[in-house]
Structures are given as structure tokens and as C-alpha cells.
């Protein structure tokens, strides 16, 4: 049977369901269970073999509620709540028990990271106790406490039986009306001209209005038949089970030794020893047995030697233990070690729940609930933008890229989660036309959506390797010099990775007026900083709009959210609009010239009048720079006088060369993305995914000034903002914070306390080299409103790894709060 992967010419007679789920593992049964709980009755789940086959059956079944971020913890903590209650609800035992997690740290850096994660737990009322080596040994007598610096004990964590837990979710789904069909392999699938999905099975054709792909390893290839990109790749995943050992008790906590790359859990009087070794073994799908439901791969003791050696170090008694079972099974991984859920871009009502990176049991319940809510409400009901399947760029489906990245990704589970950590594999995918020039100047490159971007500059001929730290990474001294140059003289950034969309058509203005909260019906050459909102008033995009003509606009967004922005805009273009969307990212390189002397430098290479009167802030002109015609936008993301020059890619090197030569007398320096982050934070400029998310509104984010309340057509989400505005002072608000102690360093996720009470957490933070101490942005909540009076009356502290530091809080930026430096 052959056909286009996008649309089948005609629909076949079929058994119809409102929602069909493919996959009977933890992901599929969780979605089914939660859809049924939300009242959906016409739901069918199809499993090609039997429930739990594929990968769920061989999962370790660990349950850890506390994660490194608040967003992930919000999802993970629900798992323990649900699994704890499933047996009573369904009558199906799950094997869930709260025997706790003991996470040991062999180094001071790991202990600091562990303490930071323990602080996150406090936001959710979760117990997480930092304990000494002696206390850790009291909880787990078999460990060698002499090799650890300390530990965390989370008593309400535990473990569950993956097969029984999956069967309990299936039982709960069936009790609420879901129909489950085993041994129903999908041989083919297609989308009909009416937008329905049809599946050819061994027992006939099944039709769905909404289709959910929750097929683990097999999701990528099934999705590809519909023209959908789901970047997944398999890897071998190992554990061993010992013979019974005398010290093992049912109440023994799960032991996580991340420095040793291993975890150990009690398993019917034995120990299961699992690993996230530093480098994994990628596995091509073609090498898997095609007709095997419960796949077991060959043993590989050479590969497992390092984690097993480390396991013996932490539990010396393992040296004499017999091994009852060596298991090796396949798991699926994503390029960024985050799972993916959500609606596939360009295919309405096609949803995905996959890529759990060997943590399906730990995230399955929370992710299934979030996806079910999305399907029923037609939009997400919590912030899941960071796991949205729409976040990936088209190139990331490349199998060679995925193979190479997967080897690294598997090991990242248990490696240190350093701030600003850069991947080592699958690099050099996308390079600016100026890459070689930056390299010659001593750039240390980082990766963002495949782009190689200068992060900091060591200087010509100097080492550019990153030395990570929670206190003072090696790039701080270089970044400090770049920041000082930006404030005193001028710097040059390469922002070619900006996402750039051209919106054209007779309805371009009307379309963007509806989609954007700001007024984009402005004169040609006017720049508008604005946002696109969801129906709940939450922020979906953070963009700059440049009106090029009466019928065309250039939309500029961050590289890391560019694919998601594309999906959001395209989703709203329907037959009503005479509008086209074109991705022109590669057409332009972007050089951002910023700093008090930027006008002097640019004036040397252009005949354009750059005065404030002729070229005011937030305007755009096409000007000559050297021999090139460029789009010059007078904008800044650092709070200084400056221009973002959109240069035809083939002319980028020429423009760079003449700017670099012209800037020599004015102290022009190259600057990287670290400096950009530090400088934008000083000015309290927001960053999407950190300070702005789909569950934050513009009023809560302090961006009410960007809203045009009087547009005749209104805009999507306006009704919610109208109600919030009418209610008065918002109960949630983004504030700026500045530590009074110059030593500690803020990054993100640190707790915010007012008069001792936890009221929020830092969404983004940096060491300010201009102000002399760390600063950050963070949302705080107060039921009676976050007013200026309430802020001023409070005693503010930031908690970093369990320690409290005094801070000042403000509604405004601590640097140039009135923005005067940008308009000189």
C-alpha cells in the first residue's frame, strides 16, 4: 500500500473513535486514564502486542519527585501522588512504596548541586533533608560513607513495579470507558482530506478525530508516515540484578550515586544496579528484532564495567555478590534530554507523548495528565513549553545527528548539571558566515538550536575550553571585560541566529493585529516589541515586529524558540487570512553594534544620518554600510545605544571587516552570549522560556506598557487581560532582585523569601559586573496583590543551596531604570 505520507486521496470505511491512542506502555495508558478522568468516553487504545511490551516492562520503576527545576518538579511530584492512590481506586496492585531516595555526593560541587535541588523541593512542600555522611550510613548501612561529602534524603520518594503500575492505569482507564485493544498492530496510517486519521490494522481500519502517538521507540517512524518530525533515537540501557544479600530490606531507600553513574534499588531481597554511564551506546532502530515484543539485547560487561566498579566503591559488599541477571534493553532519547508531548506542528489533532529518556515511569503520570488536559481544553493548562514537541528544528530529525547526540545525552542524566553547560556532540551544524572571524578573535563557542555562537572571548591564540563552576566559571573574567566595554565603549555581537519570519499578504496587518497584543498597524520603519498570547492570556511569543511595507512585516525572535514561534504563527493562518509565512533566517546575518560609542563607529562606514532626531530609538531604516545595503534596527537588548544590522548573508564578512576596522579607535571589542545575558539582566529585559512562559501574563511580567488596549479588533487573550486589569494589582508579579552580599552567584531556580516565607523563585540570574553583586528576575505571589507597598515593607532573601542571602527587591531594573541610555 503506497500513498503520500501527508494526505490519503480518499477515506476508507472505518470504525470511528473520537480519540485513538497508539501504545500500551506507561505513556499511552497514562494519557488514556487521564482522558477518561476528564470525561472523554469515546477513547480507544491500540497496542501492537500486549500492554507494557516495548520498554515499560523493563523499566527500573524509580520514583523521584524533586528535580532540578520547578517546572519539572511540578510534573514529577504528581507521579507519587497518583501511584500512591491507584491501587485503592482500581483494585490493581502497583507495587508502589515510599521507601525514600538517598542521593549521595562524592564531591563538594555535587553536594552544592544536591542542596540546590533540595531547595526546589521546599517550594512544593516536599521533604528533602541534607544529611551528613554518618547519617547517610545510618539509613543505608552497606555504603562506604568515607567516600562521600554528604547526601540528601527524600523520604516520600520510592519505587514502583512498572508492569503493575501500567496495568493499574489501564484498569482505571477501562473502568471509565476507555476501550483497550491488544495485538492490534498498525500496518499503515494516513490523514484523510477532511483531517481525520485512519489506521490500517490486522483487524480493519480505525478512524480517529484525534490521534495520540505514544509508541516509545517506534513513535519517530510512525510519525514520519504522516510527515511529522519527532526527533528520537534509541540507546542500549543496562542494569544487573544480584543474588539475595543479607543487608537488603524492603524498606531500603533507593540509592542514587550520580558521581558513580549508578542507582541501586531493592528488588525482592536482591539489588537492582542500574546505570547512566558517561557515554551511552546509540542503537539504530534497524538493528532491533522486528517481531519481538519484549526485547532483550546482548550483554556488554565491558561497557558496564565502569558503573559496576563505582557501585562496588559505594557498596563494597557488592564485590562478593553473585549476579543473577544482566539486562540490556532499548530506550528512546531526545536531543536535549527532555521528553516531548503536545500537538505536532502542521497536523491538527495529532499529539505525541514520547522520548522519556529512560524516565517514563518517573514522568508518565504528570505528562499524561498534562497532555490529556491539552487535548480536552484545546490548549495546555500548565507550562509545558519546555517539553513541547514543537520546540525542535527540522534538522534535528537527522539520524546521524541523533546518533551522535544520544551517546552524550544518556550520560547527562548523572553528570553535573552545570550552569551554561555546552553539549560536546553533534556540533558545527549551523555556522554564521562570520564564524571564522570570531574563532580568530578567540571565541569560545556554544550551541543554540544547532547554531555555533560565541559565548565568550579568550583573546587570539588563548585557550577557549569551558571550566564550569557554580561560583566562578573561567569565563567570568573575560565576560566582565566584555560587559565593561559595552557600558563604556562599544561591543559587537553576532546575532545571526535570530529567527526571522517574513509575514506577507493583503491581510498581514489585520492578522498580526489579532495575534499580537501590541499595535503593529504603524508607519513603515517602526519597530514594535510585542507578544502573541494564548486564549488564557499567557505569553506564547516574545518578538520584535518590523513593518517593511503596507503588506509585509519582518518578525524577529530568539533562536532557541524559533521553531516553536513558527509553529504558533502557522497554526493561526487559516483560510480566512490572505497571509503567507516565510522563514528567512538564513537570508540575513545580524551584527549587533552596542555601546555609547556605537554611533561614532557606525557613522564612519555609512552616510546615513544616525542622529537621535533622524534615527530615533525603535525605528528601522535601510542604509548603506560599506558596499552593502542593510536593514538597520535601532534596538538594544543590553540597555545601551545601539543598532542591530540585518545584513544579506553574502555581504556579512565585508560589513564585519569595515566595522571592526572602524571601531579600532573607539575601543570596540567582540562580545559573546554570556555578556549579552549579564547585560540584559542588569536592565531587567525579559527572556522567553526563563522570565516569560505561556502561564505568565503581560501584566504579571511587568510588560503592560506593550499592550494596546484600544485596538478596535482587540487581540487574542485580551478578555483575560481585561479582567486581570480590572481586578487591580496582580497577585503574581515579576520583580528584580539584587543581593547585598557581592560573593554569591545567582543562576536560576533559587528560592525567594519574604519575611522568611517562600513566595517565589528566581527565573533568571547573573553576576552583575556593573553593579558588583548578583541580580535576578523572579515571580513572587501574594494573595492580596504584589503592590509597591508590600514589596517595600518586606525583608527579602534569596536561598541558594540552603543558605539565605539578603536582597533588595524592586519593580524596576537596578541599572538605568528609566532607560535613558538607549535614547541618547
Your description of this structure?
This protein has 824 residues and is of the alpha+beta class. Among the domains are: 15-56 and 163-232 and 336-390, FAD/NAD(P)-binding domain (3-Layer(bba) Sandwich); 729-824, Elongation Factor Tu (Ef-tu), domain 3. The strands form 7 sheets. Strands 4, 5, 6, 12, 13, 14, 15, 16 and 17 form a 9-stranded mixed β-sheet that branches. Strands 1, 2, 8, 9, 10, 11, 18 and 19 form an 8-stranded mixed β-sheet that branches. Strands 30-31-32-29-23-33 form a 6-stranded mixed β-sheet. Strand 36 and strand 37 (774-781) form a beta hairpin. Helix 2 packs across helix 5 (162-175) and helix 11 (476-488) packs across helix 16. The model is unreliable at 1-7 (pLDDT under 50).
Features of the shown structure:
8-stranded mixed beta sheet, Elongation Factor Tu (Ef-tu), domain 3, 39 strands, alpha+beta, FAD/NAD(P)-binding domain, disordered N terminus, 824 residues, EC 1.5.3.19, GcvT/YgfZ_C, 4-methylaminobutyrate oxidase (demethylating) activity, 4-methylaminobutanoate oxidase (Formaldehyde-forming)
